[in-house]
Each structure stands twice: as structure tokens, then as C-alpha cells.
Predict the structure of Thioesterase.
Amino acid sequence: MATKAPSRAQSSAQLKIFAPVPAPRLRMICCAYAGGSAAVFRGWHERLPRDVEVCAVELPGRGARFREPPLRTMRALADDTMVGLLDCADADIVLFGHSMGGVLALELAKRLVDAGRPPLALFASGCAAPHLPSRRHRRLHDLPRDELVQELDLLQGLPAGMLDAQAFIDMFLPTIRADLESRETWRTEIRALPVPIHVLSARHDALVWTPDLGEWQRYSELPLNVRLFDGEHFFIDTHRPDVLAHLSGVLDALPAVAGAAADRAAAPIGQ
């Protein structure tokens, strides 16, 4: 029996690996919601299969990259993240994204497909199908400070407790505003990918309408999977055990591609 080579991926500016896994079967690339950092996914590895390595995306303007100016287009966010994916080719990839992160995950999936390295799965969480009109009545990213904070609160667009920390809001609002701009100005083609899509949504999410979840089918050639959870927009935080139990079951069932790690180690993404 051939012995797998050790994983060559390591934490970088773009990706944070909280618990490296030797020779992982899968590498799960996780994209946070607007304003969120890699820390959103801290501890996830403890409830996922041991052979899955969790790699949390760290975008400019937050976390370890707080001093970098935030990026304002989805293309720039995807470009930045792809730099971190260059060393991830020695294991199969799955993508997870929540809210704005779901859109970024879709863009990454398209790029990986075009590079001949389609992800084994895409998890779109708390995210409406990208071609649907926003449920907001107006664009948020160019609103005055107080109006923006009020709108985010009404739309469940801020994690619980953030409104009580005004200094914290002022520190991170430029990054949240840039993230909103990247989402609100983003346009993409509707293109069915050879990638299974798993949609995760909350029953009381003010930003995602449950009857529209089936629209995600237009982005996959394979049958769509939809799972509803209790909670509101930030259900991945408030109902984390349920979410991770579901993800763990799906990840356990994903087949490993025979010989993929050895073959891909010799050919980085994009080559």
C-alpha cells in the first residue's frame, strides 16, 4: 500500500489552519460573512472528521491582516484568496461560505473548475442564489454610518452583541462596508458547475427567503441538497453543533479521489 506524503499546506496570509492534518483526505476552505475573519471557524476542526483539514480564509482588513486595506470587489477578494490556494493542491478541496462568504466560495469554485481542479462540494450557507435581487430595499455600502448600522441591525446583519460595542463597530465598519460593496456591485454569469452544492439556511433568516433556495440549482449540474436549521442569519454561530454535525455527515460520505493527492502534489493549482 502506498504511503501518503505529508501535507505541504501551511498557514499563510490568506489561509489560517488552526489544526494541521498530516496527509488530509479533504481540505475545507471556509469563507466568513461580511466583516468576519478566519476566527469565525476556530474550533470547527474539533467536530469535523479527523482527516479533514479546516483552512479559514483571512481577507485583508481583519484578523491577522487588520492593517491591510480591505478589498472592494469580489474579483479582488477571489484573486487574493486564490494565492493561498496554490499550496492546497495535494488534497481534494471542499468549499464553505456563509452569507457574503457563500458568494466568494462560488467564485472560487468557478476558478478551480477552470483550472481543472473542481472542488468535491460547495456549501452555500445563509446565502441567497447570487442572481436573485436583494431583499434589502437599498444598497447599504454607501449609507451614512448611523443608517448603515441601523439597517444591519434590522436585517440581522451584525453578530449578536456588536451593537453594544460602539468602538468595535467604528473599528470594523470600514471593512464591513467594503465587503458589502463587493457583494452589492458583483455580477456573475449563471453557470452550472460539475460540483454538488449543499445549501444551508435558517428558518428565520431575514436575508434569505426559503422558497428561493432552489434557485441554487442553476449553479450545479448535480442534484441540489438543501438543509434548514433553526435560528436567524448567524445560525452557524448560534447553532454551531447542529451545523457541524450536518457538515460532518456530508464530509464523511464524500468519496476520496483515488491517487488525487499524489498526482496533485506534482502540479499546483493553475498549472
